[in-house]
Fold this protein.
Amino acid sequence: MAFRDIVGHRTLVGLLARSIERGTLPPSLVLAGPSGVGKRLAAVSVAQAMNCTNPTASGAAVPGCGVCPACTRIARGVHPDVNILEPGDSGTIKIDQVRDVDRAQIMRVGMAMSLDHPLLGVGLGNYVSVFSSYNVSNMKREAPAHNMYLDLAAQMGIPALLLYLTVLAITWRGLWRMESRMRAEGRTRSFPFLLNLAIQAFFVNLMVFGLSGDVEFDYGAFIMLGAAVTLLAAEENSTARVGASGRN
């Protein structure tokens, strides 16, 4: 596929070609017409022209050779920078499909930040302010990461992410052991037991929805970690006092 493969529509093809050559292609295009006139072919050809890595291979004045790796990936629908949204069974494109594309583009920005600053990140609170410098997806506006793990890695570095996950795992293990012990002792209606379950529920929500992209890194996690550590220490001291009084 390339501009030269489009049959007819010379005026439209010429207009698109000149816009691409001059760098004046608008951010949005609507290709309207009856079924079978070549709307999809024209859209794919535009994408190829804008991403072609060997524009002179075809000998044409318009970029888009149709045979280079970028052009062939676009034609197959597997190019990482070209997203193709198609109507489902309902015949329409749903808003969730568009949102998923936006999240994928935003994730690429977060990955670019993380790879450029793997040790210390870009700094806490600097994600949005430096967004434009890493806007590999050419998004029109700044946007948060929408992914807890990328957000933390981009702002504080990959070691900070690994340290955070390690501390979280160790604390969670302690909470689970405390829950099992209290269940065995029949203390399932006590306040410490209920608080334990609440903290674990918070961690589950944070980890699962943070992975799905619905939750950014929440600094409230540090508060909950502190509460968990305090709860574990209080339970350990209580157990130690009970043990000491029993020996006496």
